[in-house]
């Protein structure tokens, strides 16, 4: 790997996280200035994807300089993941990105939040990727003068963002793979053929399970997430077809890519992440590790550092080739 490949590895220093807390008042003021007050409900849109209604949430400044689409993970939908409301704390990713001048959208995939299941009752990776691609196309229609949207996926959403980046690269300007990196030589397990729909109830323990770093996780954040997640997603979505993730290939992702994870994320092997990052085909890529953070870095006291890393990457100077 050479510097001319524009690939870089960044470890965000702790002082940057601390400094981020000092600008919280400025960010709140900026949110108000951009007309995206986190104390008001986000905009809600219904986008038709192959005839199915997909719920999309948004916070948008009056004159955005760019657009982003956020994709949630395995269990919880777009609004608790990316528009979390915590008294006296700014933890809404949508609001923070709107404060930076971006039209920020979050999708509810089929069976999550306010998007109903389809007739099958199941959601699959390829179905989700197609729905994300259709929402990206709709966003392009909403903002024809803006560059193509950046696509940000968390955890399982990172795998879906990578799939969309491979199959529909013309619809995105870049992808952010947050809390997702795997051994590129491994295979995803196939779903058992006899799997049945469960429609299991979600639990408070499940909602709190990603918060494992007390030094960066105020109890108020956990309480807020548990309450809002269970309200948005009282029933777990039923998924199948995980073998479709074997469509993923580090050799096929050529769009600009940011790989980011928390230092204490139990689902990430640093060795696997380095192998994954090193073999990504994109010549324009960056790896960021957030010290002290875990799987929910965007919701914890690392929120500002997370937002800074995303904005820095998606606003970097264009590469001339």
Distance between the termini: 17 Å
Q: How confident overall, as mean pLDDT?
A: 90
By helix and strand content, what is the structural category?
alpha/beta
Tally of distinct domains = 1
What percent of residues are in strands? 15-25%
Tally of helical segments: 10
Poorly predicted sequence stretches spanning 5 or more consecutive residues: 1-36
The CATH class name reads: Alpha Beta
Number of DSSP strand runs: 11
- Gross morphology is globular
Query: Portion of residues in helices?
Result: 25-40%
Alpha carbon gyration radius: 18 Å
Strand order of the largest sheet: 1-11-10-9-8-4-7-3-2
What is the H/E order? EHHEEEHEEHEHEHEHHEHEH
Q: Mind describing the biggest β-sheet?
A: 9 strands, mixed
CATH architecture descriptor text: 3-Layer(aba) Sandwich
Which topology does CATH recognise?
Answer: Rossmann fold
Characteristic terms for this protein:
321 residues; alpha/beta; Rossmann fold; 9-stranded mixed β-sheet; two-stranded antiparallel ribbon; 10 helices; 11 strands; globular; disordered N terminus
Helix/strand layout:
Elements: E1 8-11, H1 14-22, H2 24-34, E2 43-49, E3 52-59, E4 66-71, H3 78-82, E5 84-86, E6 89-91, H4 93-99, E7 102-107, H5 125-142, E8 150-154, H6 156-167, E9 174-178, H7 204-208, H8 219-232, E10 257-262, H9 270-279, E11 285-290, H10 303-314
Parallel strand pairs: 1-11, 4-7, 4-8, 8-9, 9-10, 10-11
Antiparallel strand pairs: 2-3, 3-7, 5-6
């Amino acid at each position: 790997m050479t510097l001319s490949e524009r690939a870089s590895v960044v470890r965000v220093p702790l002082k940057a996280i601390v400094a981020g807390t000092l600008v919280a008042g400025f960010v709140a003021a900026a949110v108000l200035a951009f007309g995206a007050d986190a104390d008001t409900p986000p905009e809600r849109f219904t986008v038709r994807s192959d005839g199915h209604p997909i719920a999309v949430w948004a916070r948008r400044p009056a004159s955005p300089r760019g657009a982003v689409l956020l994709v949630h993970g395995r269990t919880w939908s777009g609004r608790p993941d990316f528009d979390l409301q915590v008294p006296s704390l700014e933890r809404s990713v949508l609001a923070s990105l709107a404060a930076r001048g971006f039209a920020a959208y979050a999708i509810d995939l089929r069976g999550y939040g306010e998007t109903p299941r389809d007739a099958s009752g199941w959601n699959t990776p390829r179905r989700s990727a197609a729905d994300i691609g259709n929402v990206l196309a709709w966003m392009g229609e909403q903002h024809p003068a803006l560059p193509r949207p950046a696509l940000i996926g968390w955890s399982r959403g990172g795998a879906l963002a990578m799939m969309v980046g491979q199959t529909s690269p013309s619809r995105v300007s870049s992808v952010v793979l947050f809390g997702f990196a795997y051994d590129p030589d491994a295979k995803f397990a196939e779903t058992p053929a006899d799997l049945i729909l469960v429609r299991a109830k979600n639990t408070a323990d499940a909602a709190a399970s990603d918060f494992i770093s007390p030094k960066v996780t105020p109890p108020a954040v956990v309480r807020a997430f548990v309450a809002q997640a269970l309200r948005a997603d009282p029933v777990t979505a039923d998924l199948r077809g995980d073998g479709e993730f074997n469509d993923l290939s580090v050799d096929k992702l050529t769009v600009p890519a940011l790989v980011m994870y928390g230092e204490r994320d139990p689902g990430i092997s640093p060795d696997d992440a380095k192998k994954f990052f090193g073999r990504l085909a994109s010549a324009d890529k960056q790896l960021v590790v957030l010290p002290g953070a875990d799987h929910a870095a965007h919701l914890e006291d690392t929120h500002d550092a997370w937002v800074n890393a995303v904005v820095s990457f998606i606003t970097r100077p264009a590469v001339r080739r």
